[in-house]
Amino acid sequence: MPRHGGWISGGRIMAAVVAIVAVSGLAVGAFAAVDLVSTVVSKPTLTLVNEDALEGVPDIGAMDGGLNFLLVGSDKRTADGAFGDPEEDSAVLNDVTMLVHISQDHSHAEVVSFPRDMLVEVPECADPADPDGEPLSSLSSVKINTVLSYGGFGCVAATVEQLTGVTIPVGGIVEFYGVAALAEAVGGVDVCVAEAIDDEHTGIHLPPGTHTLTGISALQFLRTRHGVGDGSDLGRISNQQVFLSALMRTLQSSGTLSDPAKLYGIAKAALSNMSLSSALQNPTTLISIARAVQDIDLSKIVFVQYPTVYTEDSSAVVPSDSADAVNAALQADEPFVIDPNATTDAEFGTDADPTSAPVEPDADEPATDAATDAASDPATDAATDPGAVLPPDVTGQPASEVRCSSANDG
């Protein structure tokens, strides 16, 4: 990595100080700021073609259509060998690919997970090894989790942009230990398990009930696929949504965001285990993002799995017709409304929290589907419009809903 000049390093120190004070409202101290800056500059900076979309924008609320953030989880093995031989087992695959959309008015956010075995079209991309040279050729019908290895983070972003029709100016890559460190920083994440999970591949063994996961146990929970759902990556995504929604509830719980020590721990955990795009070095951008998400109601933070169907030989999946509805909602900056039965009915889905009493319909009124009612009510105006009612094969959950991981009987 090239050495940074004094002006750049100084600017990053000031950025860290401003960001810490803006988020916590308290003077955490110069040591914390310098420590965070040293963490940032030790990681490679990612570059996105469309990061110039943020130029001249004082706040992401001023951006047409809101802000899109790409989060990639790489399966690159750590140097300590805890997850396999870093020389033999690493393929630098983007096994986790998520698009986070924050609405223009900061009233809602959507997180879309793309199955790792989904076949996609890859556009021409700049070669990370020679950015100014000939671009890498476009590809057709390749699994999305191979794009990071082929063309780097920028190519993954370009692929998701082409797939969804939205612009992605910021993003980052998270490493294996990132989740473990984040779970520790927030003091653990409570997840619900409907049936016993036993997975020798990741070493996770959880009886039914609620478990507080932290450190490696949190990472095992997110990595397991053999132990949940239908045993596929689709089941793993549903399991990840259980964890991530619980994490959001933890972050918004009493005391977490007002505790300077926890805030510093969260920032340290994230920065130590992530490589961020260059636009995120701008303190204005960091502050804007923090302010945008801190007050969003949990019911308006919705996790969905990009809808797919299996290929004829079941070796991969391809986007289903319902993907158009997801793309259209993202492009229109509309909140997602999920069919309440979609996730429970899916083979790779999750179960409703058994401790939550179901809502009984009024005896004088016929039972109806809430999402269908909201979509068909002509009196619904912009102030009460629930958003885009997604097709019944789009699975997921709002962060406000407690759902339970369902075990894989096989």
From TrEMBL:
**Domain Cell envelope-related transcriptional attenuator, which positions?**
94-252
Q: Where is this region: Disordered?
A: 334-410
Q: Where is the composition biased (Low complexity)?
A: 368-388
The record's Pfam families line, in alphabetical order, gives:
LytR_cpsA_psr (PF03816)
Protein origin, superkingdom: Bacteria
Report the PANTHER family cross-referenced here.
POLYISOPRENYL-TEICHOIC ACID--PEPTIDOGLYCAN TEICHOIC ACID TRANSFERASE TAGU
Family per similarity comment: Belongs to the LytR/CpsA/Psr (LCP) family.
Query: What is the protein name stated in its UniProt record?
Result: LCP family protein required for cell wall assembly
Species in which this protein is naturally found: Agromyces terreus
